[in-house]
Amino acid sequence: MKALLESFFVDDPDFIQTFKNSSAAKTMHHGYVGGLLEHSLNVTKLCYAYCRLYPTLKRDLLVPAAMLHDIGKTRELSPFPRNDYTDEGQLLGHIVIGCMMIDEKIKGIDGFPVVLKEELEHCILAHHGKLEFGSPKVPALMEAAALNFADNTDAHLEMFKEILAGSNLDAWAGYQSKVESNVRRTDLE
Question: Looking at the whole model, is its pTM more than 0.85?
Answer without folding.
Answer: yes
